């Protein structure tokens, strides 16, 4: 497998997944994670997460809507959690396989481009 890069991930589109795709093993996930350094992997290597602090509630809602449009166009949807009126936690996993797939890192790289 060729080592992923941030740019190579951003050029891809998430592939539909209804199961049958192998879960990315923790070692391979760490390689993907190096392309998205603001994301943290869960201890069980089934999720990646990023937290963003916005100026206010209106800004956080704008970010949520931008992520929603991006996720919908790619057909891969994160779990979004707003707390403290301006903090957004973004969780990515591939629910159909119960763990991480390349789709999670594709969307993470695209979200980073949106936020940075």
Q: How do the helices and strands line up, and which of them pair or pack?
A:
Blueprint: H1 6-11, H2 26-33, E1 40-41, E2 48-53, H3 57-74, E3 79-83, E4 87-92, H4 102-115
Antiparallel strand pairs: 1-2, 2-4, 3-4
Structure description:
- With 116 residues, the chain is an alpha+beta fold.
- The chain has a domain of 61 residues: Gyrase A, domain 2, CATH 3.30.1360.20.
- 40% of the residues lie in helices and 16% in strands.
- It has 4 helices and 4 strands; from the N terminus they run H-H-E-E-H-E-E-H.
- Strands 1-2-4-3 form a 4-stranded antiparallel β-sheet.
- A hairpin with a 3-residue loop joins strand 3 and strand 4.
- It is globular and about 40 Å long.
- The mean pLDDT is 92.
The strands making up the biggest β-sheet line up spatially as: 1-2-4-3
Span between termini: 28 Å
User: Main beta sheet: strand number and arrangement?
Assistant: 4 strands, antiparallel
State mean pLDDT (0 to 100 scale): 92
Category from helices, strands and their pairing: alpha+beta
CATH superfamily of the domain at 56-116: Transcriptional coactivator/pterin dehydratase
CATH topology of the domain at 56-116: Gyrase A, domain 2
Total strand segments = 4
The value of Rg in angstroms is: 14 Å
- Strand residue percentage: 15-25%
What shape does the CA trace take?
Answer: globular
- Reading off the top of the CATH hierarchy, the class of the domain at 56-116 is best stated as Alpha Beta
Q: What is the count of helical runs?
A: 4
Flag low-confidence runs: none
The CATH architecture of the domain at 56-116 comes to 2-Layer Sandwich
Binned, the helix content reads 25-40%
Series of H and E elements: HHEEHEEH
